[in-house]
Amino acid sequence: MPEIAESDLIDSVSDALQHISYYHPEDYVRALGDAYRREESPAAKDAIAQILTNSRMSAIGHRPICQDTGIVTVFVKWGQGCRLASSRSLQAVIDEGVRRAYLNTANPLRASIVSDPAFARRNTRDNTPSVVHVELVPGDLVDVTVAAKGGGSENKTKFKMLNPSDSIVDWVLDTVPTMGAGWCPPGMLGIGIGGTAEKAMVMAKESLMAPIDMAQLKARGPENDLESLRIELHEKVNALGIGAQGLGGLTTVLDVKILDWPTHAASKPVAIVPNCAATRHAHFRLDGTGPSLLPLPDLSTWPDVSWSPDKYARRVCLDSLTAGEVARWKAGDRLLLSGKMLTGRDAAHKRIRDLLDRGEQPPVNFSNRVIYYVGPVDPVGDEVVGPAGPTTATRMDKYTDMMLDLGLLAMVGKAERGGPTVASLAAHRRAYLTAVGGAAYLVSRAIRSSRVMAFEDLGMEAIYEFDVQDMPVTVAVTADGENVHASGPKAWRQRLSPIS
To answer: What is the reported pTM?
Structure first.
């Protein structure tokens, strides 16, 4: 009976999590490179170029692709002929591997996991515990798949218990537009069909662990109904015109994966789990002979894409920015921001609300300032900050009126804003700008200095002041209320309508 040493499993999990923090799977990079070459939307092409450039930078620099280094999910198929040589539980051993990966001083990963989720929401500081799924299988091998799933894409998970006669295709096409762009397309859709509610959800997540092979599938043709469904959904979801970062374009999904399971005659449970542009998963096997460490990828397989600012991009000085200048920005304008900007996200906004409710003033003056929704990775070496990509802006929608009343000129985040927020921006004659989700290391290179301004105890959620130089953003909502996350996909959907 093969004996799996505790240390071998710990070292293998730790190595895998470090590996996927800065190496995209090669199948994803190839598929995204193909999408870049096909893309006709200038905004989407620019976004994909940033993601690909960021991918190479992260691979070379061994720094995270995205500042949200994810909640760890582990799928274990444990051979029944194997024994774990440990006095600890399998969960505890895997979590020790997670802990070592996230606290690695050479490449610390952001700890995003909070305990007591309904109430105190205290950060566990080491990104544990992970979510572990275990299946006992015949054989003498332990097969492990490790994934790190960002909150932006995880939060867009959808589930419905369909009637047996309902169309899965219709439900998916109705549902995907409601997911917005917070899941950072282009990515993948994982779909689970059948079983029970929880089984469908797990299958949807597990399906995303398979390599991207849509081009190969289309080339050889489908061999069963599920493969036909994958192709149909791939074509019809892309025909929605959502595009990279929700800006409108040809490619929203690179692949659609489906797993199914027998279900009750009265039921048809269906789940969708999207995977974002920071796709992170890896697979290894243990046989009792030592740890399994992942091989280094061949960076020559990365597409020869190097993002540079659009020659028509407008340079904006944040230190002298006025409401009049903001009012002149047009939807889709690409800007390069330089000067001092504030940061803040969920926890900081809540603190500000609590202060105002008590009749107190915030510790920072927001008048005529720009705020960036971000929670960066800790810096290493001579870095000012670690990877610092945008977080999903819709979570801050409920604070928009409050912050605009405090004098903000503009906000920077990722994904769309809700209707009331767009209306509020128009009423205040202010703007919302998007940075590219999945380009965190690239964005961090634009940050020249950083200092804490308030709420230092919140760590990465504190309010900082960044001094930036040529930070790339796109005008998503203008002072007139024009919204590219509505107009961009609509225009491309009309252009692609014959497909649907």
So the answer is: 0.96
